[in-house]
């Protein structure tokens, strides 16, 4: 097995002198700071020679005290080994620029766009540096810099000017400061807006643009999907997200470590336990504590229950989208889900936003009769899931709409950066519970479900089979769970040592990672969320190209997406 | 295929009742339920931990009459704005005397935003009556007076000590009295 120190020595021998700082955290985590000039070569070397074929994301960090920006590139592999390399590049704050990795990894596109709009770090070589989550008028304000004063500038009230357009909308423009006017350095960043960009692509009169959204039938949650149509085929798809951008990452910087936990629930309420888990895991790494064994089992039980309810609702909603003919399964699955949610509620006290996981433990112990109540529900879920599989397999309408629609090959899926059921449906057994073992998952016996077809039907099948797998895991946990404390001893004030940690878990939808930076105070210095749905959304336009309009919903909906997490 | 679907529909319809008439029949809630807060005003010490930990700052410490003046010196108690509350339960975890809990009441409606700002009186499940408050206040006054007396005695003693650097006999005589007052005070506070 390849370990982090082996990767480090390989890099060092290939690029002598260009690794500035290094830290081998464990066999699976390698932190290096590299020479900005060598970034592209080094990434290419890692990708081609060492199997780092998965670009997991990138985060920007504003090191205002050192007058620097940092870009952290997270690289890992789809199964060749389990090393995660966090490659840092430092760039001066007055002229920030980092080479774009879009030439090497297609899915670096959105991550770099986000860093560009939030921090103003330029990415030479990026094909389309347009705003992604921010509204166009906020571009140039760079809200995630540490010296951002608010919008409009709360200290002077002058930066943003409100004006009313001819059609009655309010617009905000950011005016240059006096200093910038005098210095003559001010340049308003002018980018074509979303409409202009898509209209540039219009070729002939035969083509037209069809708007789906922001309110639409693909997933609950607003986003704009514009389809450039040539006849009945989608020629290109354009995606505009950011309608419900909440700035959770910035809010968390302004709360203390414990308060910030509450916001991880609200990113996606279907997966709030795994979001809690990912954040708490990262902070536990910073604090250097390990949760007690009982707490670990409780976390696994709840994470799997949460996976069951998420998959049930995800599948149910999707079935209503593709054909009203099978609306009833939605109702059946909701009935089953209610029981599962009630089980979760009996432990956590809340039905969807749990705020349950704590640093080094959990909030509540299991109620005394939990096992007796859970086993019948698990039995029922198992029976029902087998019946759903049977029902879907015998439904000819369902098959016609789903089989062979939206096919992803393993190669394409890896390249697009998708994870979770959509990747596993293409026969890539990539599961964080195996790749990055956490909690008690290594001791448990479960399979990683895969399918070979890679189409919409395969994605649904993977989800339904994962429900059965989760049932298996919970049954094992209930048998093995030891007695003991549920909370590890914590320092009275939670103030982690300055440092950083990256922790990832298997969300119901895929790879969920939290990159957390501490500066030794009682608040996080930076929290970056690497969500699975973000990657799904990025992969949508290429996936939809060439599809029929009628299949758009069947393809996009099968991803079980959640806009709230994209716009976190 | 159609028959199979019909069979399923009938089976599910017969299986069990899922919907219920809501205001009349509430679904059973577990003991761990995080519903509307319940305040035990007789033990709240008014420390404000809950207000400080609240991520949305929906808790405000306001003056309220029916608490325990012996424990809560400033007589301030949490008032919760449920318009902002997200029922995360951090306030409950943080409370040093466990006077704040979350109960099974979850129905929360009002005609305007002010209706869902719950004063300490509305969330209190246990509070003192007028008579008890009067007694406790008298007690508090008495203790305060005693404290004052003790403080005065201590000051006097200090002065005497400073004065009688040479003649120590008088200072010696006063010391036990001050000690006795202090002992009395602690026993009152404990009760």
Task: Please describe what this structure looks like.
The complex is a heterodimer of chains A (568) and B (191). With 568 residues, chain A is of the alpha+beta class. Chain A folds into two domains: 4-135, NADH:ubiquinone oxidoreductase Nqo5 subunit (Beta Polymerase, domain 2); 248-566, Cytochrome-c3 Hydrogenase, chain B. Chain A has helices at 4-14, 39-50, 108-119, 178-183, 194-200, 248-253, 257-265, 272-287, 293-322, 328-348, 370-393, 396-402, 410-416, 421-424, 432-435, 456-480, 532-544, 549-557, 563-566; strands at residues 19-26, 29-34, 54-63, 68-76, 84-92, 160-164, 170-174, 207-212, 224-230, 233-240, 357-358, 361-362, 499-507, 510-518, 524-530. The mean pLDDT of chain A is 84. Chain B has two domains: 2-128, Alpha-Beta Plaits, CATH 3.30.70.3270; 131-190. Helices cover 44% and strands 12% of the residues of chain B. Chain B has helices at 2-15, 49-53, 90-94, 120-123, 130-163, 169-190, and strands at 37-40, 59-63, 76-81, 100-102, 117-118, 124-126. The longest helix of chain B has 34 residues, at 130-163. The radius of gyration of chain B is 28 Å and the shape is elongated. Chain B starts with a helix and ends with a helix. The relative contact order of chain B is 0.13. Residues 187-191 of chain B have low confidence and may be disordered. At the A-B interface, helix 7 and helix 10 of A face helix 1 of B.
């Amino acid at each position: 097995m390849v370990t982090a120190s082996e990767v480090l020595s390989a890099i060092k021998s290939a690029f002598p002198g260009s690794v500035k700082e290094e830290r081998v955290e464990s066999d699976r985590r390698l932190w290096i700071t590299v020479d900005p000039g060598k970034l592209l070569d080094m990434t290419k070397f890692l990708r081609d020679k060492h199997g780092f074929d998965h670009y997991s994301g990138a985060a920007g960090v504003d090191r205002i005290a050192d007058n620097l920006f940092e870009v952290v590139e997270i690289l890992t592999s789809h199964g060749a080994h389990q090393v995660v390399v966090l490659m840092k590049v430092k760039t001066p704050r007055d002229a920030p620029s980092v080479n774009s990795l879009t030439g090497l990894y297609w899915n670096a596109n959105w991550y770099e766009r986000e860093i560009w709009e939030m921090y103003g770090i330029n990415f030479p070589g990026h094909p389309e540096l347009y705003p992604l989550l921010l509204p166009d008028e906020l571009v140039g304000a760079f809200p995630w810099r540490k010296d951002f004063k608010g919008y409009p500038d709360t200290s002077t009230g002058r930066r943003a000017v409100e004006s009313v357009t001819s059609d009655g909308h309010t617009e905000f423009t950011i005016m240059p400061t006096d200093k910038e006017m005098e210095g003559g350095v001010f340049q308003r960043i002018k980018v074509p807006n979303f409409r202009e960009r898509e209209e540039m692509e219009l070729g002939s009169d035969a083509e037209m643009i069809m708007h789906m959204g922001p309110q639409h039938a693909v997933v609950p949650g607003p986003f704009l999907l514009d389809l450039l149509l040539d006849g009945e085929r989608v020629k290109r798809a354009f995606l505009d997200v950011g309608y419900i951008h909440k700035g959770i990452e910035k809010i968390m910087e302004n709360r203390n470590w414990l308060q910030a936990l509450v916001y991880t629930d609200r990113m996606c309420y279907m997966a709030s336990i795994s979001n809690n888990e990912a954040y708490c895991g990262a902070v536990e790494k910073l604090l250097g504590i390990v949760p007690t064994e009982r707490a670990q089992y409780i976390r696994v039980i709840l994470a799997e229950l949460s996976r069951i309810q998420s998959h049930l609702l995800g599948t149910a909603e999707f079935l209503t989208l593709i054909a009203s003919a099978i609306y009833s399964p939605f109702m059946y699955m909701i009935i089953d889900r209610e029981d599962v949610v009630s089980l979760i509620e009996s432990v956590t006290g809340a039905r969807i936003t749990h705020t349950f996981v704590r640093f080094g433990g959990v909030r509540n112990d299991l109620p005394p009769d939990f096992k007796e109540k859970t086993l019948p529900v698990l039995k029922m879920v198992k029976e029902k899931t087998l019946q759903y599989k049977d029902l879907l397999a015998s439904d000819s309408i369902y098959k016609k709409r789903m089989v062979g629609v939206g096919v992803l090959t393993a190669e394409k899926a890896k390249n697009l950066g998708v994870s979770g059921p959509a990747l596993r449906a293409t026969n890539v057994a990539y599961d964080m519970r195996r790749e990055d073992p956490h909690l008690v998952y290594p001791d448990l016996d479960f399979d990683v479900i895969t399918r070979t077809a890679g189409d919409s039907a395969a994605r649904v099948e993977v989800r339904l089979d994962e429900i059965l797998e989760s049932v298996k895991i919970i049954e094992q946990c209930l048998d093995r769970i030891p007695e003991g404390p549920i909370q590890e001893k914590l320092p009275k004030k939670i103030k982690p040592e300055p440092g950083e940690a990256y922790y990832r878990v298997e969300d119901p939808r895929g790879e969920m990672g939290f990159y957390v930076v501490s500066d030794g105070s009682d608040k996080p210095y930076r929290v970056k969320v690497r969500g699975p749905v973000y990657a799904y959304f990025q992969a949508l336009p290429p996936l939809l190209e060439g599809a029929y309009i009628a299949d758009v919903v069947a393809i996009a909906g099968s991803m079980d997406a959640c806009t709230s997490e994209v716009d976190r | 295929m159609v028959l199979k679907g019909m069979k399923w529909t009938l089976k599910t319809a017969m299986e069990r009742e899922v919907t219920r008439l809501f205001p009349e029949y509430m679904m059973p809630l577990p003991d761990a339920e995080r519903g509307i807060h319940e305040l035990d005003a007789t033990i709240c010490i008014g420390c404000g931990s809950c207000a400080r930990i609240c991520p949305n700052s929906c808790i405000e410490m306001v003056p309220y009459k029916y608490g325990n003046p012996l424990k809560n010196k400033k007589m301030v108690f949490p008032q919760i704005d449920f318009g902002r509350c997200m029922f995360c339960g951090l306030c409950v975890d943080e409370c040093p005397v466990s006077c704040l809990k979350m109960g099974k009441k979850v129905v929360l409606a009002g005609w305007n935003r002010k209706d869902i700002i719950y004063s300490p009186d509305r969330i209190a499940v246990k509070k003192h009556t007028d008579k008890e408050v009067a007694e406790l206040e008298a007690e508090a006054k008495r203790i305060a007076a005693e404290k004052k007396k003790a403080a005065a005695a201590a000051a006097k003693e200090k002065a005497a000590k400073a004065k009688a650097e040479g003649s120590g006999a008088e200072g010696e005589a006063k010391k036990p009295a001050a000690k006795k007052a202090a002992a009395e005070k602690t026993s009152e506070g404990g009760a």
